[in-house]
Design brief:
Layout lengths: L1 H18 L9 E2 L9 E3 L2 E10 L10 E5 L6 E9 L2 E11 L3 E14 L4 E10 L12 E7 L6 E10 L1 E11 L5 E14 L4 H21 L2
Antiparallel strand pairs: 1-4, 2-3, 3-6, 4-5, 5-12, 6-11, 7-10, 7-12, 8-9, 8-11
Length: 221
């Protein structure tokens, strides 16, 4: 019995660790470390094909910090920088489900603007199961998300039948007109998924196998 309880505890801890594991860089690591063919896994999702460009005066790739989000079945990335005044950054990456499919995408940011003509927006173009540069021709399903020019946190989301991969192109823009102000401090993407084993399910399945093994061992005595 003691051996059974020890094995069960191990399975619970192991399954929990698996569900929240990530090979992505530590929280608040620079986006520049994601460039150059880098890829990483957070839970059930693989992230790769990272790209970054920005207008002069905007944060460089080394000044955009990235934090992996590891909630089971709802993993994603948080991008943090000081977008303020007149700045524009373009971020691109691809996310692929290692099991099951991705069923929805959520976008949010923290920031806002003040004054006539000022704005702070995040406009996101995505391609489901295709390349964003040729999405819809010949394959892929194009989608659009936008966080509008209002005080935040604000968010947008799209829901779909299920995609194995999504390519994301994110345009982060702020403009302060005259005496106005505009800023964005972080932008978040999360991806909900189907058919992802929960830690408890994995633990119960593992404990069942252990129990069957113990019963079989006793029957042989």
């Amino acid at each position: 019995m003691n051996r059974f309880l020890t094995l069960l505890a191990f399975l619970v801890l192991a399954s929990s660790a698996f569900a929240s594991s990530t090979t992505c860089p530590l929280p608040n690591s620079p986006y520049s470390g994601y460039l150059g063919g880098f890829s990483c896994v957070s839970g059930n999702l693989m992230f790769n094909d990272f790209f970054y460009s920005a207008t002069p005066g905007s944060p460089s790739a080394s000044n955009v910090m990235v934090t992996p989000l590891t909630d089971t079945g709802n993993e994603g990335l948080l991008f943090h920088a000081n977008w303020t005044g007149n700045m524009d950054s373009l971020l691109t990456f691809r996310v692929t489900a290692l099991a099951g499919t991705i069923t929805d995408l959520h976008l949010s940011f923290n920031g806002g603007s003040l004054g006539a003509g000022s704005f702070a927006t995040t406009n996101e173009t995505v391609c489901l199961d295709g390349d964003i540069n040729t999405c819809g021709n010949p394959i892929g399903i194009p989608q659009q998300l936008m966080v509008p020019n209002v005080n935040s946190p604000v968010n947008d989301a799209i829901f779909f039948a299920g995609a194995h991969s999504i390519q994301v192109r994110k345009d982060i823009s702020v403009f302060a007109a005259g005496d106005g102000m505009a800023n964005i401090s972080f932008v978040t993407n999360t991806f909900s998924q189907s058919d992802v084993p929960e830690p408890l399910s994995l633990a119960l399945f593992g404990s069942g196998l252990v129990g069957l093994g113990l019963m079989r061992k006793r029957s042989k005595r």
